[in-house]
Specification:
Shape of chain A: rod-shaped
Structural class of chain A: mainly alpha
Oligomer: heterodimer
Number of strands of chain A: 3
Number of strands of chain B: 9
Shape of chain B: elongated
Helix content of chain B: 10-25%
Order of helices and strands of chain A: HHHHHHEEE
Largest sheet of chain B: 5 strands, mixed
Helix content of chain A: 55-70%
Number of helices of chain A: 6
Number of helices of chain B: 2
Radius of gyration of chain B: 20 Å
Mean pLDDT of chain A: 80
Order of helices and strands of chain B: HEEHEEEEEEE
Largest sheet of chain A: 2 strands, antiparallel
Strand content of chain A: 5-15%
Structural class of chain B: alpha+beta
Low-confidence stretches of chain B: none
Strand content of chain B: over 45%
Strand order of the largest sheet of chain B: 2-3-1-9-8
Strand order of the largest sheet of chain A: 2-3
């Protein structure tokens, strides 16, 4: 939309139509529009356009059921609350790199289990360490078998 | 990611915390096998399957008969008493844990008099054999095993 008048810019006229100008400017613009046909035409065009949009928006608003909107809002709020509180929000915990994190957990678990089983199943040394022996018999032998390192205490009851 | 690392570290910490004092408040399952070993015709009781190879690697006996098998569930410092052939009694007392070993006090009495006593550190889930007393043309062997639960 071209206009020949250079006194006011289209933005100024748009602001005038939207009642966004300060009173002094508004008044000056009002007077200008009385004698400038170009600006007047532009102002009228803006007014028509504005009225059209306002009318369309109003019609769209009328289509909205306030009860449904309220219900939907309440539902959304409830969902967001439960998502925050839920401890089982696994996707939230794992995020995007789920495979990497699962692999890390597996490695830590395998290491811990290996460490635990190693401690349990592979103790070193004889089956028993003899700390003291007290007997009246002269002959006492402590034997350790070769294969299983089984400890045997032998005393001769004579 | 920081939250994830924190959780991993926390889990590791919890695991290590529970790993060490696993034996702290346990019962000691003590099993005593009384064996009659002699040079009678070849015989091995099936109940001696676990230790027979160890015994045969040391002794020249041909017959190993299981004459008693007794299980005792003892707490630490709790006394377990087992009557043995020939007026003998075996007394076992698990006293404490030293690392992965159970400290046992073992006493053999004959006619109410102590004839043999020893203190041993028995590996958990393992056994010791004490032998020597004569019995019916052979000897008695006592296989004592212990496991902490």
């Amino acid at each position: 939309m071209e206009k020949k008048c250079n006194d006011y810019t289209p933005e100024d006229i748009s602001s005038f139509v939207d009642n966004e100008l300060p009173y002094s400017l508004y008044h000056a613009m009002e007077q200008h529009l009385n004698h400038c046909q170009d600006c007047k035409r532009l102002a009228e065009a803006y007014t028509t356009m504005s009225a059209f949009f306002s009318d369309h928006a109003h019609q769209e608003i009328l289509k909205i059921d306030p009860a449904k909107l309220e219900q939907k809002l309440a539902h959304t709020l409830e969902n967001s609350k439960s998502k925050k509180k839920s401890p089982g929000n696994i996707l939230g915990f794992f995020g995007k790199k789920i495979y990497f994190k699962l692999a890390s957990i597996s490695i830590v678990a395998i290491l811990m289990i290996s460490l635990y089983t190693f401690h349990e199943d592979h103790p070193s040394g004889p089956s028993a360490i003899v700390k003291s022996v007290d007997t009246d018999f002269a002959s006492v032998m402590i034997i350790e078998t070769q294969k299983e390192q089984h400890t045997i205490i032998w005393f001769s009851e004579t | 990611m920081i939250r994830f690392i924190k959780i991993i570290l926390l889990l590791t910490g919890i695991f290590c915390f529970f790993l060490q004092p696993a034996f702290a408040e346990s019962q000691v399952l003590t099993e005593v096998q009384v064996i009659h070993a002699s040079t009678e015709p070849l015989h091995v009781d099936p109940g001696l399957k676990k230790i027979i190879h160890e015994l045969q690697s040391v002794f020249k006996y041909t017959s190993y008969r299981l004459i008693k098998n007794q299980r005792l569930n003892l707490g630490f410092h709790q006394r377990g008493q087992i009557p043995l052939p020939g007026n003998r009694t075996l007394v076992v007392i698990p006293t404490n844990m030293e690392g992965k070993r159970i400290r046992y006090q073992i006493n053999i009495r004959k006619n109410r008099q102590s004839i043999f006593q020893t203190q041993v550190l028995l590996r958990n889930n393992s056994s010791i054999t004490i032998g020597g007393p004569k019995f019916h043309n052979g000897v008695l062997l006592f296989n004592i095993s212990g496991s902490v639960r």
